[in-house]
Amino acid sequence: MDIVGNVLPQVLKDEATEDKGEMARLQSFVGAIAVADLVKTTLGPKGMDKILKPTGPGQEMTHITVTNDGATILKSMYVENPAAKILIEISKTQDEEVGDGTTTVAVLAGELLREGEKLIQKRIHPQHVIAGWRIARDVALKRLRDISSENDINSQEFHDDLVKIARTTLSSKLITSDRDYFADLCVNAVLRLKGSSNLDYIQIIKLPGGTIRDSYLDDGFILKKQITIGCKRRIENAKILVANTAMDYDKIKIYGTKVKVNSMDKVAEIEAAEKEKMKHKVDKILKYQPTVFVNRQLIYNYPEQLLADSGITVIEHADFEGMERVAAATGAEILSTFDAPERAAQVLGHCDLIEEIMIGEEKMIKFSGCKKNEACTIVLRGASTHILDEVDRSIHDALCVLITTVKNKRVVWGGGNSEMQMAAACEEEAKKVQGKQAFAIEAFARALRQIPTIICDNGGYDSAELIQNFKVELQKGNQNCGLNMTDGTIGSMSELGVKECLRVKEQALMAASEAAELIMRVDDIVKCAPRKRERA
Ligand code: ADP
Ligand code: MG
């Protein structure tokens, strides 16, 4: 090949660039660590909140978000660095999979990479680092499972555990002061699901006004809609037809339609034909013999009148989510054609009572005693929409974690206990491993220990001292010790009632180590411009 001096022949096109080896790795480390450092200060019960504010033209007045939730912060960030994107991605996945630990996972991955960077500077090859991390991860996972405990699902202990887990999840959120209240509320909501893992049955309604203490759990399902005028407001033993169909053309729609006629009579004729079509459709619906008709779309006066005259209560223009939930809770199918009235028994939903209720100043429709008797609604009140949104996110986190716990049943102590135990396991292992991998295993232990360290730092406590004391307590065999974040000491987690779901920790450990490994493997970043469309 013809290489002149140091100049390589150009392989990539003009707009594409490439970063190689050290440079590429450095870029990844910098990006990932920066992202981790950004959310670091929100970790733990004394973590700080962040305000997210959209910028750009026309965005100044839009909604700001005040949050402590790692996933929410990371999701709203727009980054260019590929490694940073990977971290954001794992935090999102953590949120979707288990609902909590979203900050932990990003911080842990960041800390692993920080340690990884030091190892590389010591001239340890990335492959050795990765090999060591893998050993460390398996050891940590094994220890994590060993220290977890399981209770019978119907026992009082399990119920208490759930409350404690909910409290731990909520403790870093805006509603810290009311966490006992909300922990009970969330546990009751999840227990109503009777083991089902469909969060759709728990509906959250946010109504500005009052204080967050005015929030409550209501059984049954609440739809943010009003019953159409002229219909019955209270229906017992309702048979519900849920539909997504057009019921809005009893008049000619003028927009975009061109009809040429030579007299007004003709217009009337067309209108009559449209009406006839509508009547036909209503007749088909009536064959199902529902007592309540819920439609996703608007219902115009004429069909509404027809339905109301037949004694059917009409709810129109329900939002899509609401409608899906009505269908799920009452066991209905969403119909868009009405040609099989013989299937009425299967497709109609049932509930004991539908009535109009007032929450705050708003009228809503409540479905109680639903066929799938699992649905319930959490009504959130609060002084402003920002508070309500954050409470909503916190409650959602707690519900997700509780559902995961009900499925998985295993719990571990919180307050940094599990991370310290895992770190100890890694250090024990490092003593047995020969070769350079041992350094990587020790590094893994240090990264794990950073989690309680950061929790301490965020509370303004002396982390160096506390973590050392923590180590000693564990060494003494004090299995349930952990960070007491009110006094800044090492306390008993069973007395403080700080528990966490095993799945959350497992998922965080796995995802963080996988992401760190992925980023560690990088030795080349190619930025490519999108392919241009060829001119024909
Ligand atoms: P994440 O988004 O990762 O869940 P959090 O800000 O919720 O982050 O912090 C979770 C960490 O805080 C966990 O490691 C948990 O053990 C710890 N933690 C939560 N509540 C307490 C508490 N009351 N005392 C000590 N540690 C706590
Ligand atoms: Mg949390």
Walk me through the structure.
The protein is α+β, with helices and mostly antiparallel strands and 536 residues long. It has three domains: 18-149 and 414-522, GROEL, domain 1; 152-200 and 382-409, GROEL, domain 2; 221-374, 3-Layer(bba) Sandwich (GroEL). The protein has helices spanning 21-40, 70-75, 82-97, 102-121, 126-147, 156-170, 179-192, 264-287, 301-309, 320-330, 344-347, 385-408, 417-430, 437-459, 463-475, 493-496, 502-520, and strands spanning 17-20, 50-52, 65-67, 149-150, 202-208, 216-219, 221-223, 234-243, 292-295, 313-315, 334-335, 349-359, 362-370, 376-382, 410-413, 481-484, 489-492, 499-501, 524-527. Strands 7, 8, 9, 10, 11, 12 and 13 form a seven-stranded mixed β-sheet that branches. A three-stranded antiparallel β-sheet has the order 4-15-18. β9, α9 (301-309) and β10 (313-315) form a beta-alpha-beta unit. α3 (82-97) runs antiparallel to α17 (502-520). The model has no long low-confidence stretch (mean pLDDT 83). The protein binds adenosine-5'-diphosphate and magnesium ion. Adenosine-5'-diphosphate binds at residues 42-45, 47, 70, 100-104, 168, 171-172, 414-416, 451, 455, 483, 485, 498, 500. Residues 42-45, 47, 70, 100-104, 168, 171-172, 414-416, 451, 455, 483, 485, 498, 500 line the site of adenosine-5'-diphosphate. Heterooligomeric complex of about 850 to 900 kDa that forms two stacked rings, 12 to 16 nm in diameter. One of its GO terms (cellular component) is chaperonin-containing T-complex.
